[in-house]
Amino acid sequence: MNGLRAVVVCLVIACAAVVSPAAAVTPAKGVTPSWSALPVPAAAPPVTVSDLAARGPREAWATGYEQAADGLRPMLYRWDGTAWSRDTSFPGAGEPGWLGKVQFVGTDVWILHNRAGEGEILRRSAGGWSTVPLPQTLWTYQDFTAVPGAAWVVGEDDTGLKVLHYDGSRWTTQATPDGVLYLMGITARTATDAWAWADTSNGTTVLHWDGTAWRDAKVPLPPNSNVHTLLLEPSGRITIGGSRYTDGVGRTYLMSFDGHAWRTTYPPLGDTSTEAMVRGPDGALWLPVRSDRAFQSKYARVDGPRTTFSYGPERTNAIDVKPRALARAGAALLSFGTVEIYGSKPNLMSERLGG
User: How far apart are CA 178 and CA 216, in angstroms?
Assistant: First the structure.
């Protein structure tokens, strides 16, 4: 009897394997790829990361600056789909200064460059690097954006706020509405569709350029709030991230525009800066957050009403891991930032999710 029972049991197991051969190898639903570390050639610490931009899985650029013996030095790294390498072939690479925002414009790469105190735009095309000098020197170069047919640099000089506009052949200075004191950031979708967030005499305001003039976009921002970033998408969707302050305590908010109306939500992010927020390949919003683990980075994923968190790879002897910028690279997310190992100053790190 025991022998017969054993035969029956074996037959049942065998039949189950034949009927559902994939049952043992199919991953459980909801399982997502994990973050992995990408080696980055070291710079001269301490380093500061400015921006990261990717065009597909095989090309990304990260900008910033390092601390040389005689001051700041610009720092540029390129991802080729396999490894990060440092690029020192651009004009002014060995001179004092820093690199700011990096963007893809058509087939070119455009980067804001402070070169020994003078502002310019670096452009990399198939023929190599070239520069576009700015028409004047600013005290502060706050932000930059570029699209086919247009570029903007915003900052201040001794007369106050400056919005410098480039149409592909010449620079002009653009006026802003009365009451605008300072432009904190700027981004654009086309040459006639640019957006900026500004400090005004009445608080934070979002401005829009329609190809003719800068005007108040009448965005119903939460009271007592600021803006960290504004994401423009080809579909027409707009996402704004910032902080709202109540009794001196900040709380992160997100606003989304679907082409008809604005909607405001408050995901459980505390007072996290949304400056590095991006739309991931999965359609969700991703941003780095303050980690509760000294040896790991931490990221938030916001998908409608659901917010989840994931950690980067463990880093031996790390006491502070800070992702500074994110970018979608094909089916993957790239992260670029700094890691401080016990006993040393912060240096560069990069991580990837998926791909």
Answer: 10
| C-alpha to C-alpha distance for 247 and 264, rounded to whole angstroms | 20
Residue 33's pLDDT is 74
What is the Cα–Cα distance from 221 to 219, expressed in whole angstroms? 6
The closest alpha carbon to 124, from 150, 87, 96, 154, belongs to 87
User: What is the DSSP secondary structure assignment for residue 7, as one 8-state letter?
Assistant: H
Secondary structure letter of residue 175 according to DSSP: P
Give whole-number Cα distances, 342 to 107, 287, 345, in Å: 41, 25, 8
pTM as predicted: 0.89
Helix-strand-coil split of the chain, %, nearest 5? 5, 55, 40
Decide if pLDDT at 1 tops 50.
no
Assign 3-class secondary structure to 33-101: CCEEEECCCCCCCCCEEEEEEECCCCCEEEEEEEEECCEEEEEEEEECCCCEEECCCCCCCCCCEEEEE
Reading the block at residue 134, the tokens are 């700015």
Decide: 193 and 182 in contact? Cβ < 8 Å: no
Helices (H), the chain: 2-19
Tokens of 302: 């916001």
Distance CA(60)–CA(321), nearest Å, equals: 21
Distance of alpha carbon 185 from its chain centroid, rounded?
13
Are the C-beta atoms of residues 110 and 99 closer than 8 Å to each other?
A: no
- H/E stretch holding 250 reads strand 249-257
Token pair listed for 288 = 């780095």
| CA 255 to chain CA mean position, Å | 17
- Say which residues have a Cβ less than 8 Å from residue 49's Cβ, sequence separation at least 6: 62, 63, 64, 324, 325, 336, 337, 338, 348
Distance of CA 51 to the CA centre of its chain: 6
211: left (phi over 0), alpha (psi -120 to 50) or beta: left
* Residue carrying the six token digits 């979002």: 206
Q: For the segment 28-48, what is each residue's pLDDT rounded down to a tens digit?
A: 344 457 999 999 999 999 999
Residue 27 has a pLDDT of 34
Give the rounded percent of residues in the chain with a pLDDT score beyond 90.
88
For residues 216 and 23, which has the higher predicted lDDT (pLDDT)?
A: 216
